[in-house]
Specification:
Helix content: 25-40%
Largest sheet: 5 strands, antiparallel
Radius of gyration: 14 Å
Order of helices and strands: EHHEEHHEE
Number of helices: 4
Number of strands: 5
């Protein structure tokens, strides 16, 4: 049986830390190391920031986060109903950014891939983006 958590909040950059801390509080039951917790929090921050900056282009919208824990694995799904991504493969390339004039590093998806064990990005222009990330927490 999976443990589950679902959270919806406004797409404001000020809510990024709220999302990160909420997911961390949910994950704590797996007794992750500080490094594992930091990895998850960083990946969540990147996903939420992408929703705010790119999904809703700093406008209004709702971001949804769902988390599932099954045995020693956490699944985090971050979703927006924003503008979507026309070319997901291109968007996932390191250093690629659609906002170079805003000094964006273009490393969001790269960080998610590095810090999590699995990353799946699904998107449709005009309908939004869904990012699914998984990480196994090592048993002590």
């Amino acid at each position: 049986m999976k443990d589950r958590m679902k959270l919806e909040f406004d797409s404001k950059s000020s809510n990024e830390s709220f999302a990160r801390v909420t997911v961390a509080s949910f994950v704590v039951r797996l007794d992750p190391t500080l490094e594992e917790m930091s990895d998850i929090k960083t990946a969540v921050s990147e996903a939420v920031t992408n929703c705010v900056v790119h999904g809703y282009e700093n406008g209004e919208g709702i971001i949804t986060i769902e988390c599932y824990i099954e045995e020693n694995e956490i699944t985090v799904i971050v979703e927006d109903k924003g503008v979507g991504i026309a070319d997901v493969e291109k968007a996932m390339e390191p250093l690629y950014t659609t906002k170079p004039n805003e000094e964006r590093a273009g490393m969001g998806f790269s960080f998610m891939e590095i810090f999590m064990d699995e990353l799946l990005v699904e998107s449709c222009p005009g309908q939004g983006t869904k990012v699914t990330m998984k990480k196994k927490i090592e048993k002590k």
